Amino acid sequence: MRPSLLGHCVCVKLAFSLTNNDLHKLFTKYGKVVKVTIVKDKDTRRSKGVAFVLFLDRESAHNCARTINNKQLFGRTVKASIAVDNGRATEL
C-alpha cells in the first residue's frame, strides 16, 4: 500500500487513562484504523494525552478530525486535526 493514500489524524487533550485499544475502538466509527500511537512521557511512560491515528484513507482521517474536534470525550474537550509530516519521523 502506498503511504500517500493513508491519512493521519492527531488528537490532543485526550484522557490520560485511554489505551491504544480504547482509541482504536473509538475511532473505527470514522473509518478503517491501521494504527494508533499514544505519545508517552519517556521517563514515567504515562500518556501525554496526545495520540496519532493512522487511517487507511485520507477521507476517513479528515472525517475524524472534523467530527472529533472540540467535542467532549471522557470529560475533556478534545482537539483534532490532520497531522502534517515534519520530516523527523520515518513513520508518523
TrEMBL record:
Any single GO CC term annotated in Swiss-Prot or TrEMBL for this entry: U12-type spliceosomal complex
Q: Where is the RRM domain?
A: 14-85
Keyword RNA-binding assigned to the entry: answer is yes
Supply the SMART domains for this chain: RRM
Spell out the InterPro entries in the cross-references: Nucleotide-bd_a/b_plait_sf, RBD_domain_sf, RRM_dom, ZCRB1
Q: Does the record's keyword annotation contain Cytoplasm?
A: no
The protein's UniProt keywords, in alphabetical order, are: RNA-binding
State any single GO MF term: RNA binding
Q: Where are the transmembrane segments?
A: none
Q: Name one GO biological process term.
A: mRNA splicing, via spliceosome
Residue ranges the record marks as coiled coil: none
> Which Gene3D superfamilies has this protein been placed in?
3.30.70.330
Q: What is this protein called?
A: RRM domain-containing protein
Q: Which organism is it from?
A: Mugilogobius chulae
